[in-house]
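Workshop exercise sheet. Pairs work together: one partner reads the sequence aloud, the other fills in the structure field after running the prediction. Swap roles for the next sheet.
Pair: D.N. / O.F.
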Amino acid sequence: MREVRQGALLLLTAVAGAAVAACDLALGPDVSLAGLLLIGPLVAATRLEGACTAVVSFAALLLGVAVAGHEHTLARTDQLLSLTVLAAAAAYATWASDRQAALDNQLAGVAAAAQRAILRPTSFRVSGASVCARYRSAAPRAVIGGDLYAFADTPSGLRVLIGDVRGKGLEAVRLSAAAIGHFRDCAYTRSNLAEVAEEVDRRLIDDLGPEDFITAVIAEISPGRLRLVNCGHHPPLHLPAAGPPVLLTPSEPTTPIGLLPLPRVQEVELAPGDRLLLYTDGLAEARDPDGTMLDLAGLLPACSLPDLNDAIEAVLSTMCRHTHGAQDDDVALVLVELEPSMPRQHHTPTTPAVTRTSAEPPGGLADRAGCPSSSAAVSD
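Structure field:
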């Protein structure tokens, strides 16, 4: 897409330059429009890379010289002045384009380094659970996003945050770091999971702009019990050791952090060997070249691999195959497994891995929202 936009802009500057030259020739030697040829290089400097800007600038200068030569006005003082200004502007446009590209690359490198420091790949065992987390950025030239995850081993259980900051670049990374810091503090000082979300929202007021927000899921995992607060985020995927997978969609959705959420706690029973996949929209909205979104049901064989590290890498590989390697958004994944009492069985692609119900949402997964037999929204 970037190459298409650059090609279209190059074509536009060429057409504009040719039109200026044609008008100059039509008006005769008494009128000089060489100054209008500056438009191409200056526009290119703001939208194109240095090499493309240099091509546009050189072409504009050649057009000016060619028109002046055709009209035999090269020796005129005003024409020489116009061409000199054009040459100087072309040189400046090329320099400015190169400088801006260098600054963009530097900022992208800083943002990427900050993001890697915040979202380091991790695997650990704590509180009767194994945890594996991964972050994968989009294409190298893409702008860094605001995906985030964090963990806190508290007396109430393992608390997990996964979220996505609206926006891109260093500002998104800054907000991610702020959200993680506030979560880690609140996770240890608030016993109620809804209070954690409310306190994080309150503390982020000074950090968030008027249009900023963070979609997030805060989970608390303790023996036999999962508690969730969903603030406008994609629902986690519950993968029971025995039974069909379920999307844990909240019965009463709330707004993202930064938009005054009214979080309610959702409770789900867990058994040894159960797994929980938390993810950001880079996975949920991954598309193939035809625009078809990734079916989460297609992740089940990957998620059921016995080793947790192998499983989360297989999820990323499945996504990459679906998108043909054209990843448009960052992806953060957290995969949690309760300590199993026996080895987990691996689902092969030919094994029916989902249970279809009348309440099944798009994607082929059963939806547990508002189902009294398996989950309930409670005021913890």
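Discussion prompt: The chain has a mean pLDDT of 78. What would you look at next?
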